[in-house]
Queue: 2 jobs
Job 1
Amino acid sequence: RSLRLWGGRFEGGPADALTRLSVSVQFDWRLAPYDLLASRAHARVLGRAGLLTDDELARMLGALDDLEDACKAGEFRPTVADEDVHTALERGLLERLGSLGGKLRAGRSRNDQVATDLRLYLRDHVRHIVSRLAELETALMSQAEQHVDTAAPGMTHLQHAQPVSFGHQLLAHVHAFARDVDRLRDWDRRAAVSPLGSGALAGSSLPLDPETVARELGFDSAAPNSMDAVADRDFAAEFLFDAAMIGVHLSRLGEEIVLWASQEFRWIEMDDAYSTGSSIMPQKKNPDVAELARGKSGRLIGNLMTLLTTLKGLPLTYNRDLQEDKEPVFDAVDTLLLVLPAMAGLVATMRVNTTRLEASAPDGFALATDLAELLVRKGVAFRDAHEAVGHLVVWCQVNDKEFEDLTDDELAKVSPHFTPDVRDVLSVPGALASRSAPGGTAPSRVREQLAALRDLVDGH
Ligand code: ARG
């Protein structure tokens, strides 16, 4: 007898080309622990339904435990003849139990099984991803804590705009990752629905109890529609969106780190453990971790597109196309679990060049807005203040001077608004401290923000 799960009505065996196309065990074997979990719950429900005697159930559960141990020890492995993880594990069960092993398939199809396995796998791995995100957030927060009072050039269009607390900038990245965690938590609520009991598509005529099975497997409920349950891959697509979004956030942080580490910026120095060298240029220290974070966002975005494209236009219910859901999902999980710890390490160990940041914070006339706002407080219309300061900037550029080099006369020459007291606002710490409304870069606010984020990340 064939070990295939579907040999009965076929006379000849499948063509090699079909087998090679069809086989998925080389990538879905990682679902084995979850398939075994679901099998135990299914065995118990068959027992409660009177479809397995107590003795049969005990032998079935014993064999499943034994098979799990054998899988863990690497003693049981899928062979090329096993079409998928479900086929391989049924073979393992038959090897242990003989014909009793064939009873477990009652009321169950690979269609509800694979959808259940993938949900279990993802819910489990999302927890790991959240932990790795929390480590990266913690690394960013520790650096931020050191640099609440470090002024840095704040940029728009990659041009000096206004000075900011470097801690404020680091915490901006933490907020992005905190939203990712929030999205994954929200995702989990929708993913917590069990397809088991839906069978191939129509449910089962056997007296199964999908709600109890759902709870045994840690789901919140059983699927209310068996057709939707086996056809739905929203949970996979939504996860891939969340993963792609994390990828984009990692990529943006990665790009900043690449810039910061450059000779032109020199804002940070990367630790040797998280930088790479060149095979020809002995002096090089390269930001490969940050670049790979940036580069791998491409595959995370691609994985989302792959699955959405696969799902588009599929008729209900299960179609074999759905087997293509797994590789993009696994790749996204693997990619995040590779990139997140490396980025956390890079951030945790980078040394911030405080002197350089502080010195360049006022560059590019970054205090121009402060000057204009001072005039506004003195009653000048912002439109006029903006223009007067604009003229002052041009005057300084032509005469190769900074704001603080200007004499009282020079100030007055550009505009009568510029009385000597305007110099009071030409201070970077003053500029930072004055932005003290909620969300602003004033160090007092950044400290509050950091405390709130610490609480939030503790709650992850
Ligand atoms: N390996 C398949 C998948 O990953 C599950 C098998 C369902 N096959 C079937 N012919 N109904 O989607």
Job 2
Amino acid sequence: MPTVDARPGPFAFDPDTTALLVIDMQRDFLLPGGFGESLGNDVAELRRTIGPLTALISAWRTAGLPIIHTREGHLPDLSDCPPAKLRRGPMIGQKGTFGRILIRGEYGHDIIDELRPEPGEVVIDKPGKGAFYATELSATLEKLGTRQLVVTGVTTEVCVHTTVREANDRGFECLVLADCVGSYFPEFQQAGLEMIAAQGGIFGWVAESPALLKEIA
Ligand code: TIU
């Protein structure tokens, strides 16, 4: 079985039952001048993931393995946005540089050009931070026969963490790629990765993408 050099120890995986999850690589979070930057964040902290992710996705496609993309966002009437989320995110649904912020169908809500999904790749629209809550992700993974997930995307301590925790509780083994996940806050990036692999891999494994690329080349 291919085995990746990871923390806290080797991550062995069966390519036939492993899927790549690319979380929320959306213009609203990553583009200069967008929603993320308007909140005072440095998008460069997220944009450094684009290069490694481009290489990984390309290799994953060549290997013929499944890729699932997610997007955080809401229906235009915000009926799927809990009032509690809206109270702490009053910009959701407002007009931003790239259309209504985090609204499905708007330019800013979609995935950045560099990582555009190819036909046949699943795109999961999610109203929450976790990719399992109120989505078809569980059913999709069951249909694929997936047991292990390679997790990438943004942001490390928010949507990546929530999704990995959800996945771990559902029995999936998750490998998080440090160079393919990003946080606006360097200290959260470091702590977020440490939390995953701590205590013997309390809810996953952490590796760098070249260690995985070697195994699927
Ligand atoms: N995708 C994701 O993490 N959504 C967020 O709201 N992240 C923040 O860091 N705000």
